[in-house]
């Protein structure tokens, strides 16, 4: 019996494969099949049916990336995995290659690339390394949808590359929208590219917006769980540990976004993200604490109607919607059982408990390069907190001080955004050295 690269039996008609000199299966034709671990899906469809959407997942080894692979496996026919990209986790990437057999896989970090190449071997999966290769995957001709699930500022170049090439960008990497929302919108307008949000709140707004016209929107309400410290006495925040901050009450996420949720910097970033994604005035963006994380966000229209999107806190739902948009497809995620949930609570955020939130409004008001400062200073502060070099309440203080020192560039170029990012990280390092 012929075996696929993961060692499982290969369910491909015999005339479509042959053994390479290394004894490994190579599937014939350019990319006719997507191997899903249990079955092969045909790329060329019967006449009259639409071609499969070819999806690249950037950040495939992370929380969103692995959920996206589960979503693709569930969607099956109509979707093809065109590529995967990760940063350093070469073993996890090699396992994904063996399980999903994408057209290509990219490891950003050069140090471990040799091990990946050795492990993957001559399977016919094209391998590449480095940040340029990640951007090249995002712009590749045989990719229709780029799911950007990279964490942090490294997501910006691939996002730009995808939009410059006119792709649909399914965007989980909120940081790039915060750093360069204006630029990304302009690039998308020029190329015909499209941004579809994956962040659950923005996906909810995107879905609710379909109930009316943009001019009919009065306000949007971003919901926030309040994180693990929503009701902790304020004088105990000073003693909060990394382990406590990593315990999100409702969502299982990567470490950076989990810390951002604890400070509510995550919501601050999302205020800026919402401004650019939905072309809103800052005064139209409001935040509401909703501890159950069932209402993912709301849109208030001019006639007094408020439309919300509800569901379990499970990122597979917004990921799938971004991939299937404008269609909806069945999912294995159950709907929220509202009788079991029992109650939905809402409250205004306390500015004394969550000073980071005001920084998001400040960056959104200032526009230009201030978003890049907010993001870079926060990334540096979170890294320092994770390294136990900074107490929890100092995260927003550091970010605010760096923002105070910045002179805004109104419509920054990609180079000016990079320069601002570098400057803010240097300022943050100097702040940490002084503290
Ligand atoms: N997790 C959630 O539920 C959630 C919800 C809403 C929004 N988001 C947003 O989605 C993004 C990803 O979050 P996450 O929680 O999935 O983060 P995560 O678990 O830390 O995963 C980050 C992923 O990015 C990869 N990566 C980092 N730098 C890269 C680079 N230069 N090139 C290619 N890949 C790179 C990592 O690779 P390695 O594994 O090799 O390091 C990993 O696959 C963040 O912007 C976050 O704010 C997440």
What does this 3D model show about the protein?
The chain is an alpha/beta fold. The chain has 2 domains: 14-197, Rossmann fold (3-Layer(aba) Sandwich); 202-367, no CATH class. The chain is 41% helix and 16% strand. The chain has 16 helices and 15 strands. The strands form 4 sheets. It has a 7-stranded parallel sheet with strand order 8-7-6-5-9-10-11, with helices on both faces. It has a 4-stranded mixed sheet with strand order 13-12-14-15, with helices on one face. Strands 1-2 form a two-stranded antiparallel sheet. Helix 4 packs parallel to helix 5, helix 5 packs parallel to helix 6 and helix 10 (265-278) runs parallel beside helix 13 (356-366). The model is unreliable at 1-45 (pLDDT under 50). The site of NADP nicotinamide-adenine-dinucleotide phosphate has 31 residues, from helix 1, strand 6, helix 4, helix 6 and helix 9.
């Amino acid at each position: 019996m012929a075996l696929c690269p993961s060692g499982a039996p290969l369910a491909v008609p015999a005339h479509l494969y042959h053994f390479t000199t290394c004894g490994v299966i190579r599937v014939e034709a350019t990319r006719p099949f997507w191997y899903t671990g249990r079955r092969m899906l045909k790329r060329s469809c019967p006449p009259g049916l639409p071609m499969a959407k070819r999806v690249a997942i950037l950040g495939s080894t992370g929380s969103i990336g692995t959920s996206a692979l589960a979503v693709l496996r569930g969607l099956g026919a109509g979707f093809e995995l065109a590529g995967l990209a990760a940063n350093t986790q070469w073993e996890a990437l090699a396992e994904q290659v063996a399980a999903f057999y994408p057209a290509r896989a990219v490891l950003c970090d050069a140090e471990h690339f040799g091990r990946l190449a050795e492990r993957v071997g001559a399977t016919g999966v094209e391998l590449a390394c480095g940040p340029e290769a990640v951007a090249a995957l995002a712009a590749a001709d045989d990719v229709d949808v780029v799911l950007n699930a990279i964490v942090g500022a490294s997501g910006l170049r691939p996002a730009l590359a995808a939009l410059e090439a006119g792709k649909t960008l399914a965007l989980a990497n909120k940081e790039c929208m915060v750093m360069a929302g204006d630029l990304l919108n302009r690039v998308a307008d020029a190329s015909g590219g499209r941004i579809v949000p994956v962040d659950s709140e923005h996906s909810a707004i995107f879905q609710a917006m379909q109930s009316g016209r943009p001019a009919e929107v009065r306000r949007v309400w971003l919901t926030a769980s309040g994180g693990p410290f929503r009701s902790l006495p304020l004088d105990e925040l000073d003693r909060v540990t990394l382990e406590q901050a990593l315990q999100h009450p409702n969502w299982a996420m990567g470490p950076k976004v989990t810390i951002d949720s604890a400070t509510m910097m995550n919501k601050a970033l999302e205020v800026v993200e919402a401004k650019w994604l939905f072309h809103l005035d800052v005064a139209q963006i409001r935040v509401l604490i909703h501890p159950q994380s069932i209402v993912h966000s709301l849109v208030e229209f001019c006639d007094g109607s408020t439309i919300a999107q509800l569901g379990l806190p499970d990122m597979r739902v917004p990921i799938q919607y971004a991939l299937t948009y404008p269609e909806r497809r069945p999912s294995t995620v159950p709907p929220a059982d509202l009788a079991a949930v029992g109650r939905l609570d809402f409250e205004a955020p306390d500015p004394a408990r969550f000073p980071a939130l005001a920084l998001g409004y400040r960056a959104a008001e200032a526009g230009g390069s201030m978003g890049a400062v907010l993001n870079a200073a926060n990334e540096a502060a979170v890294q320092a907190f994770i390294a136990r070099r900074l107490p929890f309440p100092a995260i927003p203080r550091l970010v605010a001080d760096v923002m105070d020192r910045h002179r805004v560039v109104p419509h920054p170029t990609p180079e000016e955004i990079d320069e601002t990012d570098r400057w803010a990280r240097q300022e943050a390092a100097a702040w940490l050295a002084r503290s």
